[in-house]
Amino acid sequence: MKAEIIAIGTELLLGDIVNTNAQFLAKELATLGIGVYRQTVVGDNEERVLSAFKSAFEYCDIIITTGGLGPTQDDLTKETASKYFNKELELHEESYDFLIKYFEKNGKKLSENNKKQAYFPKDAIVLKNKNGTAPGCIIKGDNNKAIVVLPGPPREMKPMFKESVLPYLSKLTDEILVSKVLRVCGVGESYMEELVKDLINNQTNPTIAPYAKDVDVVLRITAKAKSEEEGYKLIEPMEKSVREILGDNIYGEGEAPLEHVVGKMLVDKNLTISTAESCTGGLVSSMLVSYPGISKVLLEGAVTYSNEAKMKRLGVQKETLNNFGAVSEETAKEMASGIVKASGSDIGVSVTGIAGPGGGSDEKPVGLVYVGLSIKGNVKVKKFTFQGDRDKVRTRTAVNSLDWLRREIMNL
């Protein structure tokens, strides 16, 4: 079974609204084993929407639309779908009664414009909207073709899809797709693909696909099966092979970000931590704070941007700064030791570098970063050179600091 997602709304074409609905729907359809070969965005124009329907049905079985169900004249998705299938619009009494009560409850009278939201193509399956005034519907045509019409606001669309559309589509598919996501850090996408290329070249069911995110790399293993249980059994041996190849470069599964994985490790092992940051400006501690419960172990975070702050707050020696500079292995080491001494934490993470765009030299270019790590008296420093703009350098520094910390905690 194939589907096309069509987002309808001129505001999408103008860039006023980001189309997050397509991403959500694509993921949901994938779990059902329904292939999405194309996503389309069309403005509020009947002729163009009809053309999009015609084009989509040349290859797909189901069209899922979002948007265009409001009360105004340019909200025409339902009406255009009805016209495509040559079906008359009829008043749906249950939806009409709901609208009347909704407006009365809010001290308003139902207008003729809003009444149009209660009209649906003949024989359509009406989908209740528990979070707004625009119901959706499923319109069936000839040759088992169907258009699923959903509202545009995500807070309305997502619950409607999960509660009403998902059960409907589940009955139409014999197989589902089951996926497991492994998250990788410290290995680039191309190198990771090289490591697992034999698995990729010999894949059948399950399949394996690497792709890069902003701060890490994801490896998705997907199996086609009759049930989730059968799917995960098919995934097991592939996952085992991947883990043997990538080892501790795999930091987690699913949607959990690196900072949550590290936060959980710190809390589970009851390891207190403090940070001393220069070029990252508190980004390392900010990422850790996103993990609920981190207050049990995160004692403090110091942004010591100036040399004076490094000396006064962390006890970095003036001679160290004069002889080696603020961006140096020696300074990073004293920063890590200094924050541990000042806070009494088990772990100290320090960061000093040149985020750019200016301030670099041949000896110390933009992107040069030193990360210090003090764990129970043992102090280490790592040197990194990152490419990219200021934000990328800062982000990559914070991510690599946490990844290094993760690996060190694993070896305690």
Automatic annotation (TrEMBL):
Residues 4-171 form the MoaB/Mog domain. Belongs to the CinA family. This is Putative competence-damage inducible protein. It comes from Clostridium frigidicarnis. The gene is cinA.
